[in-house]
Amino acid sequence: MQRPFKQEFTNTTPASFIKRLMAMVYDGLLIVALLMVIAAISVALNDGEALNRETSPALAVALFRTALFCATFLFFGFFWTRNGQTLGMLAWRLRVQSLTGDRITWTQALLRFMLAIPSVGFFGIGFLWMLLTDERLSLHDRWSGSCMVQLPKPEKAKKEQKEKPAKGKTAGK
After folding, report:
1. Where does the record place Basic and acidic residues bias (predicted)?
2. Which of 62, 85, 104, 165 is placed for a possible disulfide with 90 were both Cys, Cβ 3.0 to 4.6 Å?
3. Of 37-41, 116-120, 151-155, where does the model show the most confidence?
């Protein structure tokens, strides 16, 4: 079931390559912080020792890596399905949405996340693809049935400032 956004924008444009890249940098910093917290918890649970393949049980290492992967997906999935914007995307006024303009589903979020890994991993070819098409869709956009759009700038409340009387003055004087 598709869910529309609370605030609809009719004048969105496809997000630019540079703004997507900048949002990825912002979100990357947040992801690193999140993964550091998970790593600190794993060290605390392992009697102060870091998990590694040489000294830790294979199951513990596998669980740790799975936790890192799942936390990263849940970060993106939560924000993408909730309001279409991660914190990095919010800063650059970007939003991910379905091709019909609705919020993406968890299935689309999982597809988008899983397909973005090779899209970035192979020298960013999935992102560079967007420079070659008119729709400016990356490969993981296209394959997950989603798109990233640039939201318009919020209108300034200049009217309100003009309509408010100056402090200490009353209307009519």
Report:
1. 153-166
2. 85
3. 37-41
Q: At what angle do helices 106-121 and 58-82 cross, to 10 degrees?
A: 120
Average pLDDT of the chain? 86
- State whether residue 98 is helix, strand or coil: strand
The DSSP call for residue 54 is: T
3-state secondary structure of 18: helix
- CB of 95 within 8 A of CB of 151? yes
Which token pair is 111? 């597809």
The DSSP letter of residue 131 is G
Question: Closest Cα to residue 14, out of 109, 151, 157, 107?
Answer: 151
CA dist., res. 129 & res. 136, Å (int): 8
Q: What is the pTM of this model?
A: 0.81
Other residues' Cβ atoms within 10 Å of the Cβ of residue 39: 15
